[in-house]
Amino acid sequence: MHFLYLDMVITTIVAVLMGYTKPYDRLVSHRPHGSLMAPSMIVSIFSQMIIVVGFQTMAIHFLQHQSWYSPISLYDGPEDEREKVVNWEATLLFLVAAFQDLILAFVFSKGPPYRKRIYTNVVFLAAILVLAFLTGTLLLYSPGKWLEDLMKVVHNPEDSHLSFRLAILGLMAANLFAAVAVEELIVDRVWFKRVLKTIRRKKHSKSAFKMVRRQLDKEIQFPPVGRTTYAKDADDAASSVVAVDAKGGPDSTNL
Questions:
Q1: What is the pLDDT confidence band of residue 107, given thresholds at 50, 70 and 90?
Q2: How do residues 94-104 score in pLDDT, each as one tens digit?
Q3: Distances (CA, A) of 17 to 21, 115, 183, 229
């Protein structure tokens, strides 16, 4: 049931509604990334993966250091009763993963310069808040015996460990802050993109049309006003320009 809630409820709703965010009102001169293999995209994804694994590890370590915690013991009973999914480890990782799915959906719903801000997509924002409320209810309060059995979560009303649950909620708030900070203070900054460009040592674009454009920018008498230029001569000249610029001459510059 844990995976059904994470995949069928959270992931499906988020994936469907995220695309309803409208484009931004103004166009910008630089294009968005055309590939998920762009360096800044890779750094962003791996950074968020590290944050997710780090906070899940902290949550488990925090659980194991509680005085009331009892680790799962090796089961020696009948084979048909061997599976035991209702335990603190499974409950904690399920709730933490649910919060982290919502955090990533919020973080990756970036606004300008390509799309409007997340609050303009009212349905999507409302879905995130409702799902966060439901997940928080499962974490902090007893939703009822039937729902506990359905969701396979641990909750003992007589010994609810409310302070521990509140600490986990605070840990998820720190997770949200860390995820937003990485995107806003590092990945989306101009200085970070310059660092990546320096590391890659990309002198100039290898696109043929940009090579021609750079060479034409150096031509003082371009466009040729007052003289006749034939298509065949222009094609031969453009081919020679691309061949010369592809060698990476010392005067090649970026657009």
A1: very high
A2: 999 999 999 99
A3: 8, 14, 21, 54
